[in-house]
């Protein structure tokens, strides 16, 4: 177990789920106050510690009782976006390439790619991701790859 300050400092006092700042001075009993979330969507390897992340109290998954959901930005034009947490977990484990969204234009896909890479730099700082945009079916497919 880490202390709240250790986890908060490591995550830059930003909530791993909603990507909004967390105020370290706010009461831990406040819904917007800081809390430690145990990342349990993925079954941890035997003996490995469950990763701990900083979350707002209201965003906390409460030891996995609430499924962790990282929303795509509402500013993006994406069709059928993949669930981010599950996709990142799979790619971190197995590597490879997964199509994560379809976009109406190349520009939309580029914007979504930029947003996703920036978001993942905080969500999964230990893993490097790259994006690919390819035309397909009259739209543009955005794929995420590990590197
Ligand atoms: Zn939050």
TrEMBL record:
Organism whose genome encodes this protein: Amnibacterium soli
Protein name in UniProt: HNH endonuclease
Region (Disordered): 26-50
């Amino acid at each position: 177990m880490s202390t709240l300050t250790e986890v908060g400092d490591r995550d830059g006092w930003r909530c791993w789920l909603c990507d909004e700042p967390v105020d370290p001075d706010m009461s831990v009993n406040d819904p917007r106050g800081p809390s430690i979330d145990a990342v349990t969507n993925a079954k941890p390897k035997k003996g490995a510690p469950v990763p701990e992340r900083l979350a707002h109290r209201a965003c906390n998954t409460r030891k996995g009782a609430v499924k962790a959901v990282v929303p795509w930005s509402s500013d993006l034009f994406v069709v059928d976006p993949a669930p981010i947490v599950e996709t990142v977990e799979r790619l971190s484990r197995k590597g490879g390439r997964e199509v994560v969204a379809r976009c109406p234009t190349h520009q939309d896909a580029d914007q979504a790619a930029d947003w996703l890479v920036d978001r993942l730099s905080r969500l999964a700082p230990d893993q490097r991701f790259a994006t690919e945009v390819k035309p397909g079916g009259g739209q543009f497919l955005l794929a995420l790859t590990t590197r």
